[in-house]
Amino acid sequence: MRIVLFVKYYDGFINSLDEKLKAQPEMSYADSLDFVTKASTNIFAPYVSEFKKLGHDAELIIPNFETLQFRWAKENNFPIDKNWRFTIPKAQLEKNPTDILFINSNFEYYDSFLNESRAFTNKVVAWISCPFDASLNLSNVDHVFTLFGPHFDFFTKNSQPVTLTQGAFDPTILADNKFQRDIDFSFIGGIGNFHKEREHYLKKLVKKTPLKIWGYGYNSDQPVKNILKQFQHGFAFNKAFQGQAWGNDMHEILLRSKITFNIHGDIAKGHAVNMRLFEATGAGALLLTEKSSNLANFFTPEKEVITYSSPDEAIEKVNYYLEHEDERNQIAHAGQMKTLNQHCFKHLAHKYVDIFESILK
User: Fold this and answer.
1) What stretches of 104-245 adopt beta strand conformation (E)?
2) What confidence tens digit (pLDDT) does each residue in 322-349 have?
3) Disulfide: which of 8, 111, 200, 283 matches 254 by Cβ 3.0-4.6 Å?
4) H or E segment to which residue 258 belongs
5) Per-domain residue ranges of the chain
6) What is the CATH architecture assignment of 171-342?
């Protein structure tokens, strides 16, 4: 079975790697893609190697990574036009047709692009775990995967085949780990849009804990906009904000963290679903996350992860576990073992392959 994973990457991640790729202009497309995949924290990338281990042909297409896509076009004598984000990936699918096209929630590709690509694709499955318009065109989608229960209920009600899934951890980041846990308390993630509750919590945490923050939405590269943004946040994050962190830089922060904070986007509606659950525990940091109705499906609260239900409780627990190292390490280790034994990409890859094979039949 041939599986193509199709996903746009955040501009911040692309920018973090682009200079390194451009510094090696003779690097082939295949080697460039391999370089990007190994540096990726995207929820799709690790599945490429896992599907290959199971005996399947798997490939990643990143349609908005200009340097990467232009190298493919050059090697294949394909003309580059202003619509290259659509024309190049379509040509990639046409050159190597696939059994399964697994596309992220890049909705601009769901209409004409998917319709035209069906000639080179047997079945299309989509990952939709973000806000979407109820009128979203799913006529070209055979199956949906989602992290969110409300999404699952919506698709089921509308007779759209759907699977409720989860995030996972890539244990390869633990190889040759030589980092010391020199970051007391960390948070990695953005604010704005669908993260209003997150912003509320972070503003309280930075006042009474040694929280260090990496992410987006806290500042701007443009001086005037940056001042306005800082004013908007009440200058709350000036000392705590450390910059953006993508790929291996993000992994390093988790590997160096004693405790890391997790708070879902507003769309989660009180459910534990995000990737940080597994990234943080897998990296061996003590995870402090919200109390939620389904958290016990993944971890035993207070034994494998620590939970909170208010900013004050979060502050209290951070400071307590920073002072009680043995308890902190015991819980963090238990969480890491649970993730390594049950929540890695290899555990989900088998389930995905079974679903793909069922869809193809």
Assistant:
1) 121-127, 143-146, 162-164, 183-188, 211-214, 241-243
2) 999 999 999 999 999 999 999 999 999 9
3) 283
4) strand 257-261
5) 2-168+345-360, 171-342
6) 3-Layer(aba) Sandwich (3.40)
